[in-house]
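A.,

Following up on our hallway conversation. Structure tokens first:
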């Protein structure tokens, strides 16, 4: 392998052979590449349609930035290459005329979780995993079940009973062995780790293995490519476990180190739900870790992560980038998801609605201005949260 793993806290170097998890100190490991920097010649061939080097579409076009050898085939379903859309009516509504929406809802399995799980399952299968387990707030369970099926490896999924029904149905549809629990993803994490210890199944939880981050990194790589090798002024990202935020921040550094982009990196803004906002609280108090949020609740289930393992890395990215953190109510995020879907024909999830609500707040505060190019993330598809039986009265 032409990479190693580095502890995100103490910098210790860890061998990537087999099935790496976290550092001995318990903190997440990050991938550091020991290969030639991806050249500008590769950059031009990335843009060329169906070049021989990048014959496949989707995130695995970015192999020079990903943990995979040329001889290896990824476990893939066509994830990535999602549209970065102009949204004139939505942009007018939020007072940010240059706003763009990166629509991750069109990924296989309906969310950006596909990127992370494609990378994690690929590496774990090469590392010898024969079974997987993970706790989920919803969409990670769908993606893990699908990529497990794609690899022919069984997947145990622990999810809260309160997870939206269409998400649970998708987990079962892809053959996931679903276990419903009272409580939140933290409670599911304990059950999943106990099952991993007793059964030998490999735990795919956020940041408990080093490769989901690498898949999420392709969000940042794609934005740079879609903006003609420039970066936006700001990014608004609905944050739960934090892999999207941490992954993009890593991507921007790697792109700049390779000379593929130059200048300032985007300001990163996190949005959380008011009923579960540990990152916002720590950002505001100046802390470098999060305290577990008591009794977390939000309809944006992907944001219901009371004690993220990546707290340090998230807070560091927000501060280093000169960004910030915003909490929005469930009423606001639901309203914005509905309005944005109607205005633009994009299937906004509640989490995507949270990004819109945060953009509006930041515009009103003067933190984001009309001349700035702002990318809002719709991290998943809205249909995964909707009960189709619930039509408006009189329909
Ligand atoms: C998981 C999830 C999030 C949170 O993403 P992280 O990268 O774990 O912070 C946001 N939105 C949706 C739809 C999700 O499924």
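Then the amino acids I'd put at each of the 395 positions:
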């Amino acid at each position: 392998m032409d990479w190693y793993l580095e502890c995100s806290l103490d910098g210790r170097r860890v061998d990537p052979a087999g099935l790496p998890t976290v550092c001995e100190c318990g903190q997440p490991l990050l991938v550091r590449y020991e290969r030639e920097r991806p050249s500008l010649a590769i950059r031009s061939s990335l843009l060329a349609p169906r070049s021989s080097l990048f014959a496949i579409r989707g995130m695995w076009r970015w192999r020079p930035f990903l943990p995979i050898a040329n001889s290896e085939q990824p476990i893939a379903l066509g994830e990535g290459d999602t549209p970065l859309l102009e949204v004139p009516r939505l942009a007018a509504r939020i007072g940010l005329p240059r706003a763009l929406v990166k629509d991750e809802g069109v990924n296989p399995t309906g969310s950006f979780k596909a990127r992370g799980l494609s990378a994690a399952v690929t590496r774990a299968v090469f590392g010898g995993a024969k079974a997987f387990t993970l706790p989920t707030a919803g969409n990670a369970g769908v993606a893990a079940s699908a990529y497990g099926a794609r690899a022919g490896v069984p997947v145990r999924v622990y999810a809260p009973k309160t997870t939206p029904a269409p998400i649970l149905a998708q987990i079962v549809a892809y053959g996931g062995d679903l276990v419903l629990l009272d409580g939140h993803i933290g409670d599911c994490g304990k059950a999943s780790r106990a099952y991993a210890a007793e059964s030998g199944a490999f735990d795919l939880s956020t940041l408990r293995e080093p490769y989901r981050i690498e898949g999420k990194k392709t969000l940042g790589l794609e934005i740079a490519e879609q903006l003609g090798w420039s970066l936006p002024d700001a990014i608004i990202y609905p944050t739960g476990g934090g892999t999207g935020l941490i992954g993009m921040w890593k991507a921007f550094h790697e792109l700049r180190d390779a000379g593929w982009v130059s200048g300032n990196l985007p300001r990163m803004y996190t949005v959380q739900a008011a009923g579960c906002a540990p990152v916002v609280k720590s950002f505001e108090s100046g802390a470098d870790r999060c305290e577990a949020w008591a009794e977390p609740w939000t309809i944006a289930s992907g944001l219901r992560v009371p004690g993220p393992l990546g707290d340090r890395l998230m807070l560091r990215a927000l501060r280093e980038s000169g960004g910030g953190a915003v909490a929005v109510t469930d009423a606001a995020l639901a309203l914005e998801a509905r309005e944005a879907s109607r205005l633009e024909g994009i299937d906004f999830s509640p989490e995507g609605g949270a990004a819109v609500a945060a953009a509006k707040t930041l515009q009103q505060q003067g933190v984001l201005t009309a001349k700035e190019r702002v990318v809002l993330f719709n991290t998943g598809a809205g249909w995964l949260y909707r009960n189709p039986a619930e039509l408006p009265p009189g329909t």
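The chain is about 35% helix and 15% strand. Curious whether your intuition agrees with the design.

B.
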